[in-house]
Amino acid sequence: MDFTFTEEQQAAVEAAKAVFADVAPDGVPSPALTPGAVADDFDRPLWARLAGSDLLSLVLAEEHGGAGLDTVALCLVLREAAKVLARVPLLEHCATAMAVQAHGSPELAAALLPGAGRGTLVLTAAAHGRSGHDPAELAVTARRDEDGWTLDGTQTAVPWAHSADWIAVPAHTGEGEAVLALVPRTAEGLALAEQVSTTGERLAELALDGVRVAPTHLIDTPDAWERLRQLLATGTCALALGLGEGVLTMTSQYTSKREQFGFPVATFQAVAVQAADRYIDLRAMEVTLWQAAWRLDAATGGAGGPLPSSGDVAVAKIWASEGVRRGVQTAQHLHGGFGADTDYPLHRYHAWAKQLELQLGPAAAHEEALGDLLAAHPLA
User: Are strands 190-196 and 202-213 parallel, antiparallel or unpaired?
Assistant: First the structure.
């Protein structure tokens, strides 16, 4: 069994490290001190650098100007982005582009993917339903007629929607089928109400009232939405891993310099044991992440397993949610009062960790989903 990343995947990591090297986690006002959103838009200069380094087209096929890499490569880049709390819609943009590439019509792919790869078009996805707990596809209805489709309903907490050009909206047809519509932000009948995330970023509640969608802009391929949902969940796990690694590095550096009784606190057994526990969490988060990412890529090639790929994604999200929460809690404890200082970036990581812990469902929700899968697919 070989866990070595390919040369192309490793090259993507090096490119990402170069792009994110100068990103400051505290480049915007603190969410703890800001009553509304910390900024109206995402980091456009960083977005331009990602486009210039071909990282936005990483997962696109060569025919669309991309490198043709896979989910593992995307997760490697997301891991680096989270270490510096990069304020860009990298996950939602790339995951939506992958869904359009795999399941969309040739007309839709030609209209969106070249611009998405260059960064001139920004994509996002509505994945939280009405409340963040119910299935997202049940929050919007899609009615078909002679001219196309009509969408009605509400989606909440849509990331970067105010800045995106196109939004992927899951919906149901009333016949037990989930479809995925690509809707322009300026579509008639689409209204955005401002919401603010735990991280202080600007979200949107989408209200769709008779929004018309052309047949070529709606994906009715079976499992297209489920595939996108799994990509988003797996990418969230990659972000949680990168954030956890960044926090552990920050804590290691602090405890190596902070002295009590004439010795660095990192040499105290109680401190070392807590840090070691968090390191073990990170390694468990990592191995379950790569398993989930590999299964998503392998599933397109027909490779199977005892459970559907959603089982691997659920396991990864359980570890990500629990691990990132424990990581920032330990970091705050080992930093003492300094960790709560709003002039020090650790409190920002804590806010982002809480957002990632709950995003697309907390550990308990994925434990329930995993239990349902095990009941439906007994492991003989």
Answer: antiparallel
